[in-house]
């Protein structure tokens, strides 16, 4: 059902865990199937220095989470927010049609974490 | 798949080599069409009728109350659509439960679209139907009650005999889907008070794609298949003679070892559940603590998701299901678990293990070794489990 690359990421997820002193946190849920993802990011000079994820979900959800952290790490924020669900799925060699929605979790989670970081920075600038 | 440890016998079972052996000659040397009148056909017909009589005998039925079909799905479809069609002048109301197999539920939905009305009686947290709820659902225009004998996901055994009594008093035809019980529990159509019963060969070490319908004498059903007049004009199509011979052989063998095997499988299952509870926090049983098939164990694991568990176990050469095999691939959590009041997120994290003849204590020990670390790994990965 899954590509070898999906299974490889499921077996050995990259960047799994939580950054304790994160600069941004993104939490998204998947209404279709009740699954959850949390992404924490560390930013310096507008570059994603570190990205970690936690995911409750199927094989596709875990693999796309893992892949999005790989794609995002080292990118500057403007590039990273533009990562699409489709890109994540393609980087994994594709997903079964009924699992395409799982990739939403990953890109949305990353975007939510970057939003959170920007909000925090805006607030800090006000104070 | 020699090394696979198979804990999914509710999905299907390996065909018993003795069954394959019994089937063999009806494919090759004795391949005749049972409807033909020369010796080759007559021999095939004789084998088929012997099989029919054997199956009838094992179910406490008459041979001419047994009709061969392509399996559980066809038998369920036929019972429901066949009764609906033959009795719609009397009424257009049917009763079923919320935890039936999709072969029943989807057929009921189809009839609803055609203007029939369906009442789905609830189940309790163990998955049990209350016969009194069935009684209350009966109306003057009720033409069929269809309640499964045992559920395929959680193994709960329903009070079929009591429901059958209620149906009989009310003069309503009663069908049971006994696909999960035939070959595992004693099934006698008179003790169960049923008018129609579905069974399927591949659930009791027989071949796939062959099953039977028990249809009590004088119960009218419209055929699904029209054609050559086979099965006393009720199910057209040249019969699957090798499959039918295999079906009878499999049921005979399953009946012979039923009592012993149930004790053996239940002991293994109970040890497995005991071991899991000792090694993994926050897991709970789905299904009835006692009114349950001896081989069935369904449980939910807080904070993780079923498919991820299946994939991890598959990497360790263990075959299990999350809910029903037919629902993997869909995203909906199991309708059975939801009907039992289990919240969606826990239903997603449920696992079904169904034991069988090929399982041994070694398999149980292996599972108890492999599974706790899988749970730990997935919980470490989970954003919602922080204990
Ligand atoms: C309770 C129940 N009913 C019906 C079926 C369908 O039977 P078959 O696979 O023979 O069509 C199954 C098996 O999946 C089942 O478990
Ligand atoms: S994330 Fe729910 S099915 Fe993939």
Provide structural commentary.
The complex is a heterodimer of chains A (127) and B (387). Chain A has 127 residues and is of the alpha+beta class. Chain A contains 5 helices and 3 strands; from the N terminus they run H-E-E-E-H-H-H-H. Chain A has a 3-stranded antiparallel β-sheet. In chain A, helix 1 packs across helix 2, helix 2 crosses helix 5 and helix 4 packs across helix 5. The longest helix of chain A has 25 residues. Chain A is elongated and about 50 Å long. Chain A starts with a helix and ends with a helix. The model of chain A has no long low-confidence stretch (mean pLDDT 92). Chain B is of the alpha/beta class and 387 residues long. Chain B folds into 2 domains: 132 residues, Aspartate Aminotransferase, domain 1; 237 residues, Type I PLP-dependent aspartate aminotransferase-like (Major domain) (Aspartate Aminotransferase, domain 2). Chain B has 12 helices and 12 strands. In chain B, the strands form 3 sheets. Chain B has a 7-stranded mixed β-sheet with strand order 2-8-7-6-5-3-4, with helices on both faces. In chain B, helix 3 packs parallel to helix 4 and helix 5 packs parallel to helix 6. The radius of gyration of chain B is 21 Å and the shape is globular. Classes of the chains: A alpha+beta (127), B alpha/beta (387). Chains A and B meet through helix 1, strand 2, strand 3 and helix 2 of A and helix 9 and helix 11 of B. Bound molecules: pyridoxal-5'-phosphate (PLP) and FE2/S2 (inorganic) cluster (FES). Pyridoxal-5'-phosphate binds next to helix 3 of chain B.
User: What is the name of the CATH superfamily of the largest domain in chain B?
Assistant: Type I PLP-dependent aspartate aminotransferase-like (Major domain)
Give the integer mean of the pLDDT values of chain A.
92
Q: Please tell me what the overall shape of chain A is.
A: elongated
Strand order of the largest sheet of chain B: 2-8-7-6-5-3-4
Q: Give me the CATH architecture of chain A, please.
A: Alpha-Beta Complex
Strand content of chain A: 15-25%
Task: Count up the helices of chain B.
Answer: 12
Q: Sheet bearing the most strands of chain A, described?
A: 3 strands, antiparallel
- How many domains would you count in the coordinates of chain A? 1
| Small molecules (ligands, ions, cofactors) in the structure | pyridoxal-5'-phosphate, FE2/S2 (inorganic) cluster
Number of helices of chain A: 5
Mean pLDDT of chain B: 95
Q: Could you spell the SSE succession of chain A in H and E letters?
A: HEEEHHHH
């Amino acid at each position: 059902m899954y590509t070898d690359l999906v299974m490889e990421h499921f077996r050995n997820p990259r960047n799994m865990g939580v950054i304790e002193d994160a600069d941004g946190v993104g939490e998204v849920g998947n209404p279709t199937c009740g699954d959850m993802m949390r992404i924490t990011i560390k930013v310096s000079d507008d570059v994603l220095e570190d990205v970690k994820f936690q995911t409750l979900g199927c094989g596709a959800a875990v693999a796309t989470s893992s892949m999005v952290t790989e794609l995002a790490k080292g990118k500057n924020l403007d590039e990273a927010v533009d990562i699409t669900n489709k890109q994540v799925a393609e980087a994994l060699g594709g997903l079964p049609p009924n699992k395409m929605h799982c990739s939403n979790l990953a890109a949305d989670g990353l975007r939510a974490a970057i939003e959170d970081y920007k909000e925090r920075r805006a607030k800090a600038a006000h104070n | 798949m020699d090394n696979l440890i198979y804990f999914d016998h509710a999905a299907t079972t390996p065909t018993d080599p003795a069954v394959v052996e019994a089937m063999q000659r009806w494919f090759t040397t004795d391949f005749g069409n049972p409807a033909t009148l020369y010796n080759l056909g007559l021999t095939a017909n004789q084998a088929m009728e012997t099989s029919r009589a054997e199956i009838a005998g094992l179910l406490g039925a008459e041979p001419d109350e047994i009709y061969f079909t392509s399996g559980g799905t066809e038998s369920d479809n036929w019972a429901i659509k066949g009764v609906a069609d033959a009795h719609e002048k009397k009424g257009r109301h049917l009763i079923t439960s919320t935890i039936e197999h999709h072969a029943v539920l989807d057929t009921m939905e189809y009839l609803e679209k055609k203007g029939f009305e369906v009442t789905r009686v609830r189940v309790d947290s163990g998955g049990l139907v209350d016969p009194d709820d069935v009684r209350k659902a009966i109306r003057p225009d009720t033409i069929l009650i269809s309640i499964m004998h045992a559920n395929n996901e959680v193994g709960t055994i329903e009070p079929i005999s009591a429901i059958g009594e209620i149906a009989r008093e009310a003069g309503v035809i009663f069908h049971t889907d006994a696909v999960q019980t035939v070959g595992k529990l004693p099934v006698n159509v008179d003790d169960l008070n049923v008018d129609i019963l579905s069974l399927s060969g591949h659930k009791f070490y027989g071949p796939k794609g062959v099953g039977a319908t028990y249809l009590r004498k004088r119960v009218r059903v419209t055929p699904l298949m029209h054609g050559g007049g086979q099965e006393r004009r009720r199910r057209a199509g040249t019969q699957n003679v090798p499959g039918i011979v295999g079906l009878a052989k499999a049921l005979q063998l399953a009946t012979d070892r039923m009592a012993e095997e149930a004790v053996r499988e239940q002991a293994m299952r109970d040890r497995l559940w005991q071991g899991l509870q000792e090694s993994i926090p926050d897991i709970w049983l789905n299904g009835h603590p006692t009114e349950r098939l001896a081989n069935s164990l369904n449980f939910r694991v807080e904070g993780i998701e079923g498919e991820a568990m299946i994939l991890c176990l598959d990497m360790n050469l263990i075959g299990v299901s999350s809910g029903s095999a037919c629902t993997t691939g869909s995203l909906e959590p199991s309708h059975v678990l939801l009907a039992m009041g289990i919240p969606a997120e826990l239903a997603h994290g449920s696992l079904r293990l169904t034991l069988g003849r090929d399982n041994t204590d070694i398999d149980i020990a292996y599972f108890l070794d492999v599974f706790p670390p899988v749970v730990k790994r997935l919980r470490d990965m989970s954003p919602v489990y922080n204990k």
